[in-house]
Every structure is written in structure tokens, then in C-alpha cells.
Amino acid sequence: MKIKHLFSVLLVLVFGTFTSCELFEKVDDVTFNVVLPLDFGINEEAENPGGMSYFDEALLDANSNADIAKYASKIKEFKIDKITYAISDADPTTVIFTNGSLVVASTGKTIATESSASLANTAETDLTANIDGFNDLAARLLDDKQELVQLNGTFSQTPVAFNVRFRFYVKVTANAL
């Protein structure tokens, strides 16, 4: 009987010795997915039939998401999985937006790009990811859960008005305890 208990104790000691503390640290983590919206309302009234460059900024605020707010002080990691955009209320719909990019304002790091977007396209469309930009944005969101994002590109003509909603698909890991 004593040998049976001794074997159990030895097994626990061996398991404890070869198991890292990191494994136990991850046991109390919670991981969840969120979608963070970022809206731009564009109304360029200047008359440029040959086109023009465009620049605007908006605040990506993760604190506005209820799940993130719940774990705000316990978040260990953000991971950007993808970014999409959808255009609405375009006038005129014949305008093309080229060389579009989303950029982390504080570092100038490109997050994602779109070579050409027709304002007639209202379907949700994936942007081309820049993994370094995704990682930079994720690290900055970890600091204070918000970051200023720039939208850059060129219109084929103006005046033009439309709304564009970017959707950041984000995986969040937080300490549940």
C-alpha cells in the first residue's frame, strides 16, 4: 500500500518538475474574438475632375467593445486576424479610390492596403494585410486600447461623398482571474 502512495507522489513530483509555469499561467486565460469598427465619413467638395490625393484620421477605440471593457486591465494580447471594408452612400458611384492604405498614425507603419476600390462596390471586402503593421497596431492597442489610424489614397475624381466602415477582426487574450 505504501508503494502505491509513494508512486503517486513521485509521479506528481516528476510531472511538476517537467511542466513549465507558463502552462499553469495559461490555464486561467480567456480568449475571445471581437470586431472593432472604424468609420470614415468622406465628403470631398473640391472640384478635381483629374483626381486628387486624400488623407484622413480616425480613432480606433477598442474600449468601446463591451467584452474588451470587461477585461481591460487584464488583457495580455491583441492579435489582428484581418481587416475588411464596406462602402455605402457613395455619390457618385463612378469614382475609384486607388493606392488606399490604413496606417498607424504614431509610427507611420502600414496596416493594410487596397490597390483599387470602386465606390460602386458595397460588399464587405478584405484588405491586403501587412503583418508587421498588424503586429504594430496590436502592440499599441495593448497599451491603452486605442490608436489613431490614417486613411490615405487617391480619388479618380472629385467632388465625392461616401461612408466607409473598416472592420478589424481581433482575437483577444486576457487573464480571467
Major sheet: 5 strands, antiparallel
Report, as a whole number of angstroms, the end-to-end distance.
Answer: 39 Å
Cα Rg: 23 Å
Give the helix proportion (percent range). Answer: 10-25%
Mean pLDDT over the residues: 89
Topology as a string of helices (H) and strands (E): HHEEHEEEEEHEE
Residue share in β-strands: over 45%
Strand tally, please? 9
Overall spatial form: elongated
Number of helical stretches of at least 4 residues = 4
Structural class: alpha+beta
Please, could you describe this protein's structure?
- The protein has a five-stranded antiparallel sheet. It has a four-stranded antiparallel sheet with strand order 1-9-3-6.
- It is elongated.
- The protein is built from four helices and nine strands.
- By secondary structure, it is α+β, with helices and mostly antiparallel strands.
- The model has no long low-confidence stretch (mean pLDDT 89).
- It has helices at residues 2-18, 21-27, 66-71, 131-144, and strands spanning 29-48, 52-61, 75-91, 96-104, 110-118, 125-126, 128-129, 146-155, 158-175.
- The two termini are 39 Å apart.
